């Protein structure tokens, strides 16, 4: 329920609308592709998460296999995506609130002005971020009870939308009567929508379970089960919502404006009003408050644990990793994340801008998972593996390639901008490496070189790639995909070959000894 509560957030409120603007009815395929990409990546992390169940685990696996530098890059990229999730959910809630139709709520209309956050809108977003933080300030038990309740509500409203919209307006002809009508903008936007329309972002929350591994009962069983069930349910809900959105719009509206010309401020609520479902629009306005609220609370928890985990990696100030003696929560990390989240709202004051940043930075962090899981097969064949995927030798390189393609789909210059943000963390790394006396830094650099070169590679390919993805068209579509695939496989092999057994690997052995396993393969 914690994972599902995080998965069904603002993605369902905006994703279907944004995806059809980019790809038309073919956006339904974009959701399938997004689910496959994240599913393949999650398969790798279930093995890692059950091997090393610990708070903020996503920030540590690369460090175990490749040393401090790669561990820092992965942790920093993941942390950037997580703190951006807190303001994006706040913006989603405020944007829907700004169109509340009730007479007593006219004061919310000032939150947005000409499609942009107003001063009062910024204040409202800041208030939500503060509430998300405070709900996490007091114990995991309170967080779990809150998100479990919210999750039930978050599933019920989308289900009601699917049923009522279908009964009120069902136009299957909106899918088109030819390939051209189904894919009015071609095939390339189908892939682009997975990243730029927030589809990858919508599925990203599976890592909530991984990052709270040490606080989950029976992690050897419940980590994999929680991820599989929540991703499966979320995929079905998102596909049905996308199809419902496509078939509910009046064909005359599409004929007049085209899919890219349909503009909503509160997509599903506005559509409910057009269909005469006023009572449902009220529920949607309420859910637009509740769904992002539940997701924001979940990710305030995840982001704080990720930052605290970076402290244990010895590359952040120690006060950020201090746990409260009574509640066991990293309170200072929560406060710092809240402040940075408010700054991000000023820099990226829209849902779509933050969605692209989150998707790209997350994917870069995810690239280390497939490399680490196969490196551990080589480095520690006898380690306890409650989940040992039989398909892992195949799934690991596939997940790496899919993550690379999805990063490329974010389009230039987003890929470069995110990589620059990730590079901003390197001064922290080298500052603390110097304070530590550069312990094993040479090995860490040698073992991380593949990632540093990879970031240059994907930036260059994004710049020189096809015009469909904002490149210079040196590599025409779809041959640009071939270049990314071949290059990614080479970097994957390089990454697996350069792992080494350092002190972080030895420390991980102690944690792995505590794992419960029945030694069965999955």
Automatic annotation (TrEMBL):
This is Amino acid permease. It is a multi-pass membrane protein. It is found in: Membrane. One of its GO terms (molecular function) is transmembrane transporter activity. One of its GO terms (cellular component) is membrane. The chain crosses the membrane at residues 28-46, 67-97, 117-137, 149-170, 190-210, 222-241, 277-301, 332-351, 357-379, 391-410, 416-432, 444-465, 477-496. It comes from Weissella viridescens. It comes from the Bacteria. Keywords: Membrane, Transmembrane, Transmembrane helix. Its main location: membrane.
